[in-house]
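Hey team,

Sharing the Glycosyltransferase 2-like domain-containing protein run so nobody has to redo it. Sequence (580 residues) first:
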Amino acid sequence: MDRVSSAAMLPGAIQAREQMGLVWQQVKAPVIVPVLQLAVYLCLALSVLLFVEKVYMAIVITGVRLLGRRPESRYKWEPMGDDAELGTSAYPMVLIQIPMYNEKEVYQLSIGAACGLSWPSDRIIIQVLDDSTDESIKITALAIGVDLKSELIIVLWRKWQELVQIECRKWASKGVNIKYAIREDRVGYKAGALKQGLKHHYVKDCEYVTIFDADFQPEPDFLLRTIPFLTHNPQIALVQGRWTFVNWSSPKDMKLAVPDLKHKGGCNADPDSIVVNADENMMTRMQEMSLDYHFFVEQQVGSSTCAFFGFNGTAGVWRISAINEAGGWKDRTTVEDMDLSVRASLKGWKYIFLKDLEVKSELPSTFKAFRHQQHRWSCGPANLFRKMVMEISKNKKVTIWTKIYVIYSFFFIRKIVGHIVTFIFYCIVIPMTVFVPEVQIPKWGLVYIPSVITLLNSVGTPRSFHLLMFWVLFENVMSLHRTKATLSGLLEAGGRVNEWVVTEKLGDIMKTKSKGARKPRLRLGDRLHLMELFTGVYLFFCGCYDLSYGKNHYYIYLYLQAITFAIVGFGYVGTFVPQS
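Structure output:
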């Protein structure tokens, strides 16, 4: 009976397959081919725009290096020195803001490093802006059904805040002028905290404000290298330092000294206790390659050509009067730093980027943290572009060249086209063409342009040149999330447009968990990422079809990209923090 039923079903299956093939042939010529061809043309056009932008930046940065156009040669800069008559009052008052939210693994680093800055102690104020609520307490309370506003939860939250207060009191006892500030709620997130911090009465005497996120550790001479640009050049509003990616093995290993009136403070750590965070895993190496290009090329080009670039949110010094003139901090997007940068530039203020001014920080080590960060960094700029494009175009205080640079280069090409064309072209359109041989992609758009763009992106991190292929594959995977976030910001669609998720930093957590810890529980839901898995299956299917019927050998790329999506989809990327 089984053989008879199978034989009876076989002709039906063959007939259904033939009908599907007939429908495909009827639809392909009038619909699929022209639509796919149009998609190829659009992607090629956007790729050319991206290629031109990359080449332009390469030419500019080469000219900057050859001509020696360092900020010190373009702007007036004189070292800060003691004045026999004025004494320490010759130094301007500087406010250091350290915004934090549940940064229990790293808060001691930034506070200690800020207190170790070389600056007269009576001319500096350290302000710790603590919005912490300890998310683990919140999660536990929700799990057991306890009201988040109950007295017990409030007491536990205050216990966590007391840890930061104790750290502040420790430095205050050493003569550091340090203030601890909390808010009743997190309205405005980081922008709200920074805005509230500037309202305190003791800030009125400060001319400049420096911002360090909780995982940033500036060198002692940070202010001595940045403030002179602001004091001698009244048109400058911002001086930005460059991020480097280093972890300290433990906050206890840091040897910090309190700065005296002769600004001889220091922040030194045992070299043996330092671990390069970028080498922590393959994902952090990929991040380092992308961010180094951003700082060494994009930020330098903006600073050298238009004296404009996006503030990176930390490791920078602002002129407080420029912040106030621009309208202060706003929380309308998830990129409050970029928002302020654009608004201040429209008022005529200029910025300086110092590539040699390095500030240590920690890269997100877990894929979850990295994905949240990339969503914020992709959605926010697109949403800001939507909100400000008309305001920029109508502005009369800046030159037409600056407008073109901000709208076209800064926003359209780098923040929108770069994300969308990567995913649409390399992960959807090219794989789709294996089913439609009538649509051909020219070799210059398929090989030459992407190769040149990739090589130009490698200039920021020469030591990782051998990882270029892995970087390309990983960037294509991340373009899935960046494209989703960019479209969400442009269209203001979805509930995560203004979602501000703090990037989790592990600090010393893995080291402490590894000592005497039980074997971690691996929950399947913690690792699986369905969007990546579905995309990987699609690419694998396209690769199999091309291997069987194609002639262009796309399957080599398609299999490699499918494997990368699968690796990420199954959670085998980044540091996995075990659930104890």
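The CA atoms of residues 292 and 567 lie 25 Å apart.

Ping me if you want the raw files.
A.
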